[in-house]
Design the sequence.
């Protein structure tokens, strides 16, 4: 028996959400008294596997594991090989696809958007915030034997585990289920301008409050003064004001910079889940009731078009 974590990586870099779930998995595995096992899929996964600090890591490197159907085959094989009691993963679009596939094949339940999990009286119990996070629903799984189900966690719910070395690393033998419907045709580098916001220590988040793409110079200059990058909300990228690769949140990237300055961002839950583990959060918003002020460390209530230039002037004066 074991606790199995589905780990995601991008070009060999382990997703922060997966490292967080590995941390939760380690605690759960010791509460249940079973090993912690991980699965990593896709080209380059053997290298990633060696760095994961768990008892056993299975890797499946072939290109057929680039698509969800192949990954479901791999997850099913790993669950069987590990005798998994439960599968844990960060709640990404990819993980939701794969978890849904396995749940469908095996008739298992998935609990999503979770923030915690424990083992109480022989059963797994998970926390799922609901009604705008005003209540926490205690959720379980009805299957009791073997693999009981799957759990997907909000990114940023746990402290990421440090990379280290795996107890044992095994190439997974994955039978092709033939359940396709998808075909991997190749990878194409997106035009991101070479910026990876997940690697920056300082991010200036720009929201719809900027009013239009013509005002982004304001945040670009502030980011440059601080040696950081510009990040955005979905409202901004959906409006076509900035590149999709800069979007933070549930359907964007998860970031944990040392400093996050939210400019004209309301702080919707779908944005919050992508940046809540930032070191220091500063919000600039003209609405004193904007939700961002509920979780910012410092807040400035005011018009960003006067606050941001004033802040930059002060920073430049201090630097000079
Ligand atoms: C399934 C789903 C997934 C989603 N995924 C994401 C996601 O990944 N990432 C994401 O960000 N969102 C996501 N969203 C959208 C999310 O719900 C919000 O709509 C979005 O985050 C709002 O972006 P915003 O804060 O830029 O805009 P708004 O909510 O419109 O906020 C703009 C803010 O700017 C302030 N403002 C306006 N003018 C000024 C000024 N002159 N000075 C100072 N402040 C000013 C306003 O007071 C307001 O608070 C998702 C939604 C759904 C339904």
Sequence:
């Amino acid at each position: 028996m074991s606790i199995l974590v589905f780990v995601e990586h991008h070009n060999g870099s382990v997703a922060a959400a997966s490292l967080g779930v590995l941390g939760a998995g380690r605690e759960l595995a010791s509460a249940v008294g079973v090993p912690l096992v991980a699965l990593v899929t896709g080209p380059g996964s053997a290298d990633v596997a060696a760095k994961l600090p768990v008892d056993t890591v299975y890797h499946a490197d072939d290109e057929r594991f680039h698509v969800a159907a192949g990954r479901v085959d791999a997850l099913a094989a790993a669950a069987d090989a590990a005798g998994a009691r439960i599968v844990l993963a960060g709640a990404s679009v990819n993980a939701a696809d794969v978890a849904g596939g396995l749940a469908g094949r095996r008739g298992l339940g998935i609990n999503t958007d979770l923030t915690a999990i424990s083992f109480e009286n022989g059963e797994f119990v998970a926390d799922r915030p609901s009604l705008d996070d005003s209540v926490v629903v205690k959720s379980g799984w009805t299957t009791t034997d073997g693999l009981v189900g799957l759990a997907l966690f909000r990114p940023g719910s746990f402290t990421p585990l440090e990379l280290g070395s795996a107890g044992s690393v095994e190439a997974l033998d994955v039978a092709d289920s033939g359940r396709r419907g998808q075909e991997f045709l190749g990878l194409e580098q997106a035009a991101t301008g070479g910026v990876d916001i997940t690697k920056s220590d300082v991010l200036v988040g720009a929201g719809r409050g900027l009013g239009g793409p013509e005002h982004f110079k304001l945040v670009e200059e502030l980011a440059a003064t601080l040696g950081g990058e510009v990040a955005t909300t979905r409202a901004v990228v959906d409006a076509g004001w900035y590149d999709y690769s800069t979007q933070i949140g549930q359907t964007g990237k998860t970031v944990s910079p040392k400093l996050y300055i939210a400019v004209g961002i309301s702080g919707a839950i779908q944005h919050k889940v992508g940046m809540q583990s930032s070191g220091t959060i500063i919000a600039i918003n003209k609405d004193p009731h904007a939700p961002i002020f509920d979780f910012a460390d410092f807040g400035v209530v005011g018009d960003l078009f006067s606050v941001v230039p004033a802040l930059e002037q002060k920073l430049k004066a201090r630097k000079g």
